[in-house]
Amino acid sequence: MPQGFDLTEIYDRYGPMLFRLCFIQLKSKEDAEDAVQSVFMKLLSEQKSFESDDHLRFWLVRVAINTCKNALKSAFRRKTVGPEALTDLSVTDELHIQTLLDLLALPPKHRQVLYLYYYVGYSAAEIGRLLGVKESAVFMRLSRARKQLKLALEEDAS
After folding, report:
1. I want to staple 32 with a disulfide (CB 3.0 to 4.6 A). Which of 23, 66, 154, 158 is the partner?
2. What is the CATH number of domain 1-81?
C-alpha cells in the first residue's frame, strides 16, 4: 500500500459498487455484506501497492468475484432468498423489482458480465481479463444475457 493509504476513502469510493456486484452474485444482502468485508480485509492484510486507481478497482473487483465464487461453493451456503429480501434494496417501483428479479434469475456468468459491463463500465476486454475468458466469450455472454432478459421482460409485460 502506498503511504497515506486511506481505507475509508477507498471503501466510500468502491464499497457500494462491490456490494452491488456481490449482491448480484450471492442474492443475499447479508452474504454480499460479508463478501465486501472479506474483500477489504484482504486489502488490509495483503499490503499491496497499486499503480493507479484503475489497478486498485480492477483488483477489488477480481477479489470480490473470487470471494463470491468461494461463498457459492461453501457448504454453509444452502439457503435461498425470496423476493421479500428485495425490500432491503429500497427499490419501491414494481417494474424495477421485477426487472431485478429477472436479472437475478439469469445464470451467474450472465449476471456477472451484465453487471460489469453496464454498471461498473468495464470493457469486454477488461471483463475477459477479470474472468479469465476471451473477449469473444464476454460478447457471447452479453448477447445471451440480453436475449434472456428481453424474453423475461416481454413475458412480464404480457
Report:
1. 23
2. 1.10.1740
